[in-house]
Each structure stands twice: as structure tokens, then as C-alpha cells.
Amino acid sequence: MLYVAGEKILVLMSPLDASQVFKDENSFAFDSFIDMVYRGVGNVSDEANRILWRTPKEGFTSLHPNPHGKVLVHPGNALLHKQLLTPSYLQELTRKVTGCIEDNMQWESFFDTSVLSSNTNTKIVSLHCWCRDVLIEAQNRAWFGEYIWELEPRMTVLFDEWDINSWMITYRYPRMMAKAATRPRDRLIKVLTRYLDTPREKRSGGVPFVNELEDEERHAGLSSEDSARIMFIILWGINSNVQMTTFWMMAHLLKRPAVAAAVREEISVAMRTTESTESTSGVTLAEVVAHDLVSCCPLLNSAFNEVLRIHSTGSSVREVVKPVRVRGKSIPLGIKVLIPQRQLLLAMEAFGFDAHEVDLSRFLRDKSLERHAHYRPFGGGITLCSGRVIGRREVLAFVALALWRYDMQPLEAGEEAFGVKGMPFPKLDEGKPSLGMSKQVEGHDMFVKVTRRDH
Ligand code: HEM
Fold this sequence. Notes:
This protein is α+β, with helices and mostly antiparallel strands. It folds into two domains: 1-41 and 314-341, 2-Layer Sandwich (Uridine Diphospho-n-acetylenolpyruvylglucosamine Reductase, domain 2); 42-54 and 72-312 and 346-452, CATH 1.10.630.10. 52% of the residues lie in helices and 11% in strands. The chain has helices at 15-23, 31-41, 46-52, 73-85, 87-104, 127-144, 147-151, 155-165, 167-170, 179-196, 208-220, 224-255, 257-275, 283-295, 298-311, 341-345, 348-351, 362-365, 388-405; strands at residues 2-4, 7-11, 28-29, 115-118, 122-126, 315-320, 324-326, 329-331, 336-340, 406-410, 416-417, 420-421, 447-452. The strands form four sheets. Strands 1-2-9-6-3 form a five-stranded mixed β-sheet. It has a four-stranded antiparallel β-sheet with strand order 4-5-13-10. A two-stranded antiparallel sheet has the order 7-8. The radius of gyration is 22 Å and the shape is globular. The model has no long low-confidence stretch (mean pLDDT 93). Keywords: Heme, Iron, Metal-binding. It comes from Stereocaulon virgatum.
């Protein structure tokens, strides 16, 4: 048991205990944390908070069947799960988002904000900004349509500023000292509010979830601004983990050219098929990503799994709401329970004596590791990540396109090219809370020399 700011927290570090917590949703609840995030991070109004938690007995009616008498927060979550887990919705989302990633990965489309220096044949890019610009742009365009970019062309940078500084809010910094977080957050909420206040014909092209959630929230009586605050929280979850997983996966592959070359060889058959059609809509890439890259490229997927293992620093949290026993000991009501990822994912009894080392082939050599009780990088139970399928697809799409289209060479510490100096390999920041994937220590990055590849 830990005491933090006078509060008792039960920290569980065994996979068996974690399993019990994930299975028993009635005793270990998550609602108080949703409430905390909506109020503390999204800053929803008191009135909105009342509407979000109003039961059917208190007047809440859903637009969807609600046999279990849930409050607005839950059907909203169910709509997100429908978007992410129903095959036809997921397929359409994959098509849209990989199409956007493919567009953004063209030589001519590199964002100015990613390129530090260039000539006709070479670009020096910040890996952090390249992943951020390609993926956040793609995800927002896929989810909301083109119009969101007309409202705020600096969306990727604002989102990054928020993500990097969001710990100031989770650590409850005084308002005056947390402006680096509140400024980008408040701007993004303003953009989303304007988006929701725009007639639908003008903001078409997004996924059904956005309109479905908006309809449900308006029906329940939420204002545009409070709906935008909730969308903002969801968007944060969507953007942060994908961007960071891609960053770490690219960084580790670029540090190990032999493994990167083997991955390039492994993806070549699949990637060649994307070039044999005239399609630029992403349909072919979407199919290749969903089938070939996920199912037929074991080294690529092993690298992805290992990066999740090494860089997940999030925790699952619950509150005890019913009398319950853990290992025979009764746990009082109201106790918060924390299951940190990192200890489980670095355990030697699960991953071997070199569990702290990065080995991108680890999951290729031992395929059973992916199902190991210690390996839950997407959490479990009610908070098991519903974006795990699309998340993997997006990361693999970026990595495969980068390896297939470009030769990339990281600038070593002290090495200089085109006036840009390289830096040491980025370090993971263990001191700040994360939504799952760790960030790098602020200011750490990898600068990469990128040229086009002939194949
Ligand atoms: C590779 C990328 C991703 C990683 C590593 C990741 C990781 C995680 C983790 C660790 C959790 C929390 C588990 C817990 O509290 O027990 C989580 C939850 C969640 N993630 Fe992800 N995630 C990724 C991508 C995505 C994407 C792309 C989406 C949406 C499009 C998404 C949507 C969610 C949602 C909605 C939750 C809350 C649980 C739920 O209701 O599904 N994630 N994710």
C-alpha cells in the first residue's frame, strides 16, 4: 500500500492480481477516474458534469437502446467501441487513415514543421516532428474531415504542446504555472467547439462516431463547448499513443540498420503490390496493412511488440466500490488500485535475463510471449484499449512506408549535416505520467537524413 497526498493506494504488481482486477468490473470500477479526467483535464462545466452522470431515473434518455440504465458517459463510450471494433466501421476508418498517412509520407508532402534543412535530394528531419505531423494530421483528417484543418492549420503542433505539457494538469500545477498546457488545450477546445457549431454539410468526410456522439450529447442537453471538451479528451488518447509508438519503433529500427534491412526485405512483397495499382486513395495500402503487414511480417510485428514492452509506462487504475478480497486480504471501499505496466513488462521471470534490453526479434523467437500474462501493453478489462487494432495498423503503415520509400540515416551525436547537429539516442522520460507509451525526455529527438530510394 502506498500513501500519496494522504490517500491510500494499493499497488499491484503481479499478473495474477492484475487479472483479478481486470475481470471483476463490479468491485473494481473506473467511473471515478473518467469523472476526474473530464473535470480535471477537460474542465467540463458543473452543469455538463451533472448531465454526464444523470441516470435514466433522473431524466437521462439515450438515442440508443439502454437496457441497463446507463448514464451518458457509457453510451458515449459504446459508440467509440462501435467505431473501433465493428468490422465495417474499422475497415472504413483504416481506409481513410492509411490513405491520409500515405499522402503525408510522399516526398513532396513533408510538413515544413518536420524538415530542419533540405536540398533537392535530401531532407534532414526531426523524427519526433515527422511522426507527429504525419500521424496527427492523418488521424484528425480521418476522424473529422478536411474542415478541421481550415479551422486550425497548426493542429499538430498545438496537440504536441498539449501532450508534452499535460503532466502539469495531472500533477495539479497552479493555473498560473500550467499555461504551457492550458493554452494549447483551450485553443483546441475552441477549434472543436467551432467545428461542432458548423453545419454538417460543411464539415463532412469524418467518421460516423463524431456525429453519433454529438447527437447523443446534444440530445442529453450538453452544449457544443462541453461536447468539444469530451471530444478533446478522446482525441488525446487517439493521438498520443500512436505518435509515440511510431517514434520509438522508428528510432530503434534506425539504430539497428541490419534489422531495418531485414524488415524492408520482409515487407517488400506486400509493399510492391501497393505500387502496382494506380490507386492513391489508400484502398490498396489499407488492405496491405490490415492483412499482409499484420499477419505475414513476423519481424515487423515483433519489433512493434518489443517497442510496446520497453516503452509502456502507463498504469491501469481502479477504485474499490464493493467489498472484495485480494490474496485473502479484504480491501476497504474507496481504496484506489494502481497496476503499473512497467514492472510487469520488464520482469525477468517473464522475458528473460535481458528483459531490460531492447531486442526487436524477441517476439519472433518466442511467439508465446505475446500471450504471456505479464504482457498487457494495451491494459485489460473495462479499460482494455479499443484502439489496439487500428493503432497497430497506423504505426505499421508509417514504418513500412518510411522503410519502403526512403533511405534513412540518423545523425550521430556530434555529427553535422546541412547545418544540423545530431544528438544522442533519445531517453525515455520515466518521471512524467503517460497514457500508455512514454514520451522521450523533453528536447530529446533523433535527426534523420532522408533520401528517396529506388526499388
Ligand atoms: C499503438 C497505439 C496505442 C497504444 C500503445 C495504446 C495503449 C492504451 C493503453 C495502455 C490504454 C489504457 C489501458 C488501461 O487503463 O488499462 C488504452 C486505452 C484506450 N485506448 Fe489505446 N492505445 C493505442 C492506440 C489507440 C487508438 C488509435 C485509439 C483510438 C482510435 C485508442 C483508444 C483507446 C481508448 C478509447 C481507451 C480506453 C479504453 C476503452 O474504452 O477502449 N487507443 N490504450
